[in-house]
Specification:
Elements (H helix, E strand, L loop, with lengths): L1 H33 L1 H7 L10 H21 L5 H24 L3 H25 L6 H21 L3 H23 L1 E2 L7 H7 L10 E2 H10 L28 E6 L1 E6 L1 H4 L1 E4 L8 E4 L8 H12 L4 H12 L4 H25 L13 E3 L2 H7 L10 E3 L23 H11 L9 H13 L12 H14 L1 H4 L13 H4 L4 H5 L2 H9 L1 E2 L2 E2 L32 H4 L9 E4 L4 E2 L4 E2 L12 E4 L18 H11 L3
Antiparallel strand pairs: 1-3, 2-4, 3-4, 5-6, 7-8, 9-10, 11-14, 12-13
Helix pairs in contact: 1-2, 1-3, 1-5, 3-4, 4-5, 6-7, 7-13, 8-16, 9-12, 11-13, 12-13, 17-23
């Protein structure tokens, strides 16, 4: 009698906890369906989640809860349902453990792990007490396996055998095609030279950061009305092509199921110059990508994806340019192209904050706001972190120096991984061996020498003395202050927006993010900008951290004498003033970007060192700096 009463009590309380579990599921399912941003922010996750997948998770929770219902009504009558309810909690425990280990947000998922683990133990214990021995897990499993075996034996031995074989073959065919068209990784042939590897090899970005190759190739035609310059292709956004390659420098081919392209380090770190508009341009790997208009390129993709007939137009264009097999066409029509559109629209949400800030223009990007908002899920704090894209040559003497414009990190490998993460690399997707090859090559790759000749050695000799007196202590390798933050903003006087955009909260989040090979323990918060080494300074125009001063000559002027407005995006070099052509009929009205130094984040004030020299001394100093 006591055993019977105990069993009845166990079943009754099991059913009660089933309904408690259903109620808890609804607490998560309803916000996931209708208020996903609120749900994410409650758990400290990025507010711009992957839609519609979060809502899909909400629907799955509703479905699971409906599945629980029979066990909540009469567990003894539906023992298989009841034990599956217990098993589902164990599966959830394994899932939360996986997310804690891989997602980078361990604190967000620990409460869910603890609640599902508790429900698994409570439900399992109550059901074990409440059901007779023949309805406990092992007898049920054994009976189920025997029944399945008998069913299969009858199916394959009787009249249904042909149908079963057909079903198995169809499933095998569908599974293979799905693997071949969506998941199979085809390694790209290795590139023999390190410089070609830098320019064209993949470093391993996540699926949302890759663009299907066929989609990428047809977009300039499909969305021609949105291109900044008709008929110029991707060069309209500052992409640099060289002979023998069908993709621009900085885009790597990668095939995981379907061929795709993904950016690598060279996209933002390959410059170009020419002496006159008639000259052949010279690409310079590891130089700042002064022509690349990354923000305009992003919004071209986002706005193009916003067209309601995007999928149909892209499919038609692909079929006109490429020979696709019948199965391949189905995957592109129903999966690959629609998923690409959804990825663009998701990124449009993630980067909506850009529209609230001054346009970046060519050669510039906001370095840490994407990490804050798209990677770590911070709310928009209205900061502006726009800076010039830097050079990345000659890294060996920079080891242990403080890097980034504000000197927030002195670990080169860490800095490189953080940059990759900001553009879409994840701990799971990154290719450490490929990444290491790039990092090692950059250690010894030298800065470019002045290519135009005609140096006045007498003037340069006088300029060297001026450099040693006025500049070397902060900008020469081997000096104590080089690569350090030594001067406060009150004295330095440069635009404060970038240094203010890198916050203590972001430092804390970097330190918490430890997912091999990503480990960001060296980050720190500073209050000013670092003293940057000046090797290859001639090719690093425009100057200052935000690219607000077009030439070295302008940098040596008092701030009120520097250009208030100039144009960016020209590759024609001014060999006298040292910088790219930024004014005059060559650029005005020619599709170049108008840079206004009066806008927030664009101020050209500060760094008045050397501005008190005479004009003759300034020209001497510039002549010497051409040699750096």
């Amino acid at each position: 009698m006591d055993k019977t009463r105990c069993a009845e009590c166990g079943v009754r309380w099991f059913q009660r906890f089933i309904w408690i579990g259903i109620a808890i599921n609804m607490v998560f399912a309803i916000p996931a369906l209708f208020w996903p941003d609120f749900l994410n922010s409650s758990f400290g996750l990025p507010s711009q989640a992957v839609y519609p997948w979060l809502q899909n998770a909400g629907m799955l929770l509703v479905g699971v809860s409906l599945f629980y219902a029979p066990a909540g009504v009469n567990a003894a009558r539906y023992p298989v349902y009841s034990w599956l309810c217990v098993l589902s909690r164990l599966i959830a425990v394994a899932f939360w453990i996986y997310l804690i280990q891989t997602s980078g947000y361990p604190d967000a998922f620990k409460p869910l792990l603890y609640s599902d683990a508790a429900m698994f133990l409570i439900l399992g214990a109550l059901l074990y007490i409440g059901l007779p021995a023949e309805q406990r897990p092992w007898p049920l499993i054994r009976a189920g396996l025997c029944g399945l075996w008998r069913c299969l034996a009858k199916c394959f031995a009787g009249a249904c055998r042909k149908i079963a074989i057909v079903v198995v073959l169809v499933l095998a065919f569908v599974g293979y095609e799905a693997w071949a068209n969506l998941l199979r990784e085809v390694p790209q042939p290795p590139l023999a030279s390190d410089v070609d590897h830098f320019k064209y090899a993949a470093i391993g970005l996540g699926p949302d950061a890759r663009i299907p190759l066929y989609v990428f190739s047809v977009l300039p035609q499909v969305c021609a009305q949105r291109m900044p310059k008709l008929g110029t292709g991707w060069q309209a956004f500052g992409f640099i092509y060289e002979g023998g390659h069908d993709l621009p420098i900085g885009l790597a081919k990668r095939q995981i199921g379907y061929p795709s392209v993904e950016p690598n380090c060279a996209l933002c770190h390959t410059g170009m110059y020419r002496k006159s508009a008639d000259d052949v341009p010279v690409p310079v790997p590891t130089a700042p990508a002064a022509l690349l208009d990354l923000e305009s390129f992003q919004w071209f993709l986002y706005d193009c994806a916003g067209d309601p007939d995007f999928n149909a137009k892209v499919i038609n264009a692909i079929e006109q340019h490429y020979e696709l097999g019948p199965i391949e066409k189905l995957f592109y029509r129903f999966l690959i192209v629609p998923a690409t559109r959804q990825a663009f629209l998701k990124q449009k949400q993630q980067y909506a904050w850009q529209k609230l800030r001054p346009q970046q223009g060519p050669g510039r990007t906001d370095t840490f706001n994407p990490t804050k908002m798209a990677v770590f899920g911070f709310p928009d704090d209205s900061t502006i972190g726009t800076v010039d894209l830097p050079q990345i040559w000659n890294q060996k003497p920079r080891e242990s120096l403080y890097l980034h414009w504000d000197g927030n990190n002195n670990a080169i490998k860490e800095r490189n991984y953080a940059a990759a993460m900001a553009v879409g690399a994840t701990p799971q997707s990154v290719l450490p061996a490929e990444f290491k090859r790039v990092t090692d090559w950059l250690l010894s790759h030298p800065s470019p020498k002045w290519p135009f000749g005609g140096l006045d050695q007498v003037r340069a000799h006088r300029g060297q003395a001026l450099w040693e007196k006025n500049c070397a202590s902060c900008h020469d390798f081997g000096k104590a202050d080089t690569g350090q933050v030594t001067v406060g903003l009150d004295e330095l006087g440069t635009d404060p927006y970038r240094v203010n955009s890198f916050t203590v909260g972001l430092v804390d989040k970097f330190h918490e993010f430890k997912k091999p090979p990503f480990d960001f323990g060296a980050y720190r918060k500073t209050q000013s900008y670092s003293n940057t080494p000046t090797d290859g300074i001639w090719l690093r125009a425009p100057y200052l951290h935000n690219g607000s001063v077009p030439t070295l000559w302008d940098l040596l002027q008092k701030p009120d004498k520097r250009p208030k407005v100039f144009y960016r995006g020209s590759s024609v070099f001014d060999t006298r003033s040292v910088g790219f052509i930024a004014a005059g009929p060559e650029v005005k009205g020619g599709g170049y970007f108008k840079f206004d130094t009066r806008l927030p984040g664009n101020h050209n004030t500060g760094h008045e060192y050397g501005t008190g020299l005479s004009d003759s001394e300034k020209w001497d100093l510039i002549e010497y700096m051409k040699n750096l």
